Amino acid sequence: MPIKHKQMLIIMLTSTVALLLACVIFVGDDVINFRKGIVKNVSALAEAIGNNCSATIEYNDPSTAADTLRALRADPSIVSACVYTRNGNVFASYNRPGMAPLAPPPAPAVGYQFKGGFLYLFHPITQRGETIGTIFIMSDLSDLKARLERYPVILGSMFAAAMLVAFLLSNRLQRVISDPVLHLAHVVRSVALEKNYSVRANKQSGDELGQLIDGFNEMLAQIQARDAALLAAHETLENRVQERTEELRQSQALYYSLVEHLPMLVYRKDQKGRFVFVNSQFCQFHGKTEDQILGKTALDVTSNRDLAEQHAREDQQIIETGKPVEMESEYQDPAGNIKYLQIFKSPVFGSDGKVTGIQGMLLDVTERRQTAAKLEDAHRKLVAASRQAGMAEVATSVLHNVGNVLNSVNVSATIISKALKVSETANIARVVALIQKHSENLGEFITRDPRGKQIPNFLAALSQHIAVEQNSLFKEVETLKQHIEHIKNIVAMQQSYAKAAGVTEIVNIVDLVEYALRLNLGSLKRHNVQLVRNFDPKLPEITVDKHKVLQILVNLIRNAKQACTESDQREKTVSMTLRNGGDHLEISVSDNGIGIPPENLTRIFSHGFTTMRGGHGFGLHSGALAAKEMDGSLAVYSGGLGEGATFTLKLPLQPKK
Q1: Using only C-alpha atoms, what is the Rg of the chain?
Q2: What pTM value is reported for the model?
Q3: What integer pLDDT is reported at residue 590 of this predicted model?
Q4: For residues 587 and 648, is the Cβ–Cβ distance under 8 A?
Q5: Which pLDDT score, from 0 to 100, does residue 500 have?
Q6: For the segment 372-401, what is each residue's pLDDT rounded down to a tens digit?
Q7: Cross-strand partners of 113
Q8: 58, 72 contact by CB (below 8 A)
Q9: Could you tell me what percent of the chain has a pLDDT over 70?
Q10: Cα angle for residues 609, 388, 391 (degrees, 5° grid)
Q11: Right CATH number for 262-364 from 3.90.1170.20, 3.30.450.20, 3.30.200.20, 3.40.720.10?
């Protein structure tokens, strides 16, 4: 749409909205004023009729009041009228001729209201300053309706005339703005088509349009100057491009020389997974020439489709995340030999910082894997010996804790035995014998004999003593039951641990940790070591070999207790922390004991290394191996001597397939 038409449209829309708003305000104001006029006129009429009817109400002359109301026939808008006494009773009424009689409404408070297209007005009738009745007048709004019916014709004529004038004026006045703009647009098209930056636009006024034209002319002058400078710099740039091209060629030659002599397979792919560079080692490994690989994808190069699709997914992940990866993978060369390659993949970034492809380096680690297999066999034998040592530690800890609980059982049994020996219940037999001896004159014996008088007081004191004694024995029996239940749980745990390990199952990690703590609880209490639990809420269940986890936890708690007992801390504390790591769980055992010197942190998990008196160096080593077998890890942190230590066991929620 041309700009002049847009200007005219804006002016016409503005005029239309303003005129419509004025019409609405005018009509609304006129309707309000007209209704007020109707109320005023009807109120005056009611005042006059009321004054004429006041004497008839006072003298109780309804017929005269009815004659007075019939005078309302002169006003065709009056539909109905009624006069009420001061008690609200109908005194006289009037209905417009030709209409069905209307029942007079109940006399409400004085006032008026518009309802259903009628005006309902109630006006008091007073005489000598006293209200003696009420007059009701019902008037239709036929005059207002007739007035509203004339508005569309009047307002439509005014609106049409105003729109015609607005159109003529806008068509004339819009040229003040559109002509300079159209001239400037013509100059812009000329410059764009002819690339002639020497032309200038003519300034027609000093307003904002004039400033716009001045700015445009200044811009053309600057472009003209820069165009000349650009032509001068073009020749210099061509020379520099030739120099940079030579430098790039030499750099590429150096790069190719480097990757060709590396003992690795090197390649580079674009975003679609097509090879854009491969070195001779890569071609030799796959038994193909460079021309047979470049421009192809991994699906075209290798016969292992599953492996190629896996690499495609890995490459796409690197392109999306922009992060390098390192992995080991198994391959089969064209001769059918199994090869193990260590793969390093990283993204290739363009000059704009976006990923344009990936590059990879593959190192043949087959010989290293074979050596690792031999070491793994030696590890298995070592793990078996370590596991036996760890099971011995668990059994020793269980038996030690059972011994501690049995000591408590012995103490409780001794207390109960002593309490029964010194019990006052033995005196009951002497009291019974004394009562039986005087059974024939028991009343006289209790009331007059000095010994008989003491029997009621003695029985009262004896009942209180027996109650206290019974409560004490009940508490000791409950304590004894708890100790026996504790022994039962420890023995049950030992039986559970004695089952064949290596079977994974879904367990509640909190229950498993509590079992491990229970095995060491007696020892912790005996050495005055406080136990602190820090468990995350809503911990998920985990699929693990529960016996391996129990072996690790029992050893860690035992070591933490030992570290606390050997320290000089007044308050010895062992903290147990369970944290939800999303796809794994973290179990941390912390103490404020003697700590670990930095030089020992690197060999703390080595076989045979120990700093504990009487230790054998199997516990932490076997724990680390067991954690690795469950696809987890066991790590340690310590700030140094006297700073305590924290051992953290990380376990995946689900073991690897």
Answers
A1: 54
A2: 0.32
A3: 95
A4: yes
A5: 44
A6: 777 777 667 765 655 555 555 555 545 544
A7: 120
A8: no
A9: 82
A10: 95
A11: 3.30.450.20
